[in-house]
């Protein structure tokens, strides 16, 4: 079994946190710029955002900065995309639903 020092384990955590958070940025930037969220699943983003929020709470409880920093940033990005998707979905629903016509 490999034996790592605590600081080496922490470096692995920071690298993982950095990479997984940075990997999320292109989707967030594209969503903000184009406002085209047709390829984004509302259910998946809702579950993902809640999951990231729970990872953030977990990181806060165990006081591990790689988890806290990465999940705080990813939560903010995911929440912004989720809110855009909700706004986009409700606008499309309003457009697609015809107003009742009075006779």
Commentary on this structure:
The longest helix is centred in the last third of the chain and has 32 residues, at 65-96. The chain contains three helices and no strands. Helix 1 (6-34) packs parallel to helix 3 and helix 2 packs antiparallel against helix 3 (65-96). It starts with 5 loop residues before the first helix and ends in a 7-residue tail after the last helix. Helices cover 80% and strands 0% of the residues. With 103 residues, it is mostly helical.
Q: Give the beta-strand count.
A: 0
Number of helices: 3
Strand content: under 5%
Largest sheet report: none
Poorly predicted spans:
none
Overall average pLDDT? 87
Q: What's the order of the H and E elements?
A: HHH
* Cα-atom radius of gyration: 19 Å
Kindly name the structural category.
mainly alpha
Query: What is the percent of helical residues?
Result: over 70%
End-to-end Cα distance: 79 Å
> What sort of overall outline do the alpha carbons produce when their principal axes are compared?
elongated
């Amino acid at each position: 079994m490999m034996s790592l020092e605590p600081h080496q384990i922490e470096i692995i955590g920071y690298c993982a946190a950095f990479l997984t958070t940075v990997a999320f940025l292109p989707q967030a930037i594209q969503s903000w710029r184009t406002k085209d969220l047709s390829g984004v699943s509302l259910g998946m983003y809702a579950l993902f955002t809640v999951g990231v929020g729970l990872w953030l709470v977990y990181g806060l409880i165990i006081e591990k900065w790689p988890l806290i920093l990465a999940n705080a940033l990813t939560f903010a990005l995911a929440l912004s995309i989720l809110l855009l998707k909700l706004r986009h979905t409700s606008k499309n629903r309003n457009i697609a639903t015809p107003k009742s016509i009075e006779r």
